[in-house]
Design goal:
139 residues; elongated; alpha+beta; two-stranded antiparallel sheet; 35% helix; 19% strand
Length: 139
């Protein structure tokens, strides 16, 4: 689109992703790593909610606080051995509920085992990259 800003389409929905101005983007949207964290947090929340409902547990609200730091030396390839991605992500699941702590602990264990995005982040997922080079048309 513009600078480092891009748009992904999913059916009739659009998601804009960008980089901060200091990194060459327009600063108009979250960057790809932030979108990954948002997807992880949302997936954990949805999974906890689905399992709480399935188990008949009363949960008033669910939130996930995520934190992670990335070393730009990995992205730029200037320091061997430094990952370009997050070396670790911290996730704190906040549940407002009157349920017993043991029941909530079991709920979190189930969600941790069954959350699809958490699974993709925790375990290597094969991604088959290919390129389709298209020459620009002479107008």
């Amino acid at each position: 689109m513009e600078g480092l800003r891009s748009e992904s389409r999913f059916g009739g929905l659009a998601l804009t992703i960008d980089e901060p101005v200091s990194f060459g983007g327009t600063g108009a949207a979250p960057n790809p790593a932030e979108v990954l964290l948002a997807a992880l947090g949302a997936s954990i929340e949805v999974t906890v909610r689905c399992y709480a409902d399935f188990l008949g547990m009363q949960v008033k609200s669910i939130g996930v606080e995520l934190s992670a730091e990335m070393n730009s030396q990995g992205f730029f390839g200037t320091s061997e051995g430094v990952r370009p991605g997050f070396p670790a992500v911290s996730a704190i699941v906040q549940i407002v509920s009157d349920e017993e702590p043991e029941a909530l602990s079991q709920l979190l264990e189930m969600a941790e085992r069954c959350c699809p995005v958490l699974d993709n982040v925790r375990h290597p997922t094969e991604v088959l990259l290919s390129f389709d080079v298209v020459k620009p048309r002479g107008d």
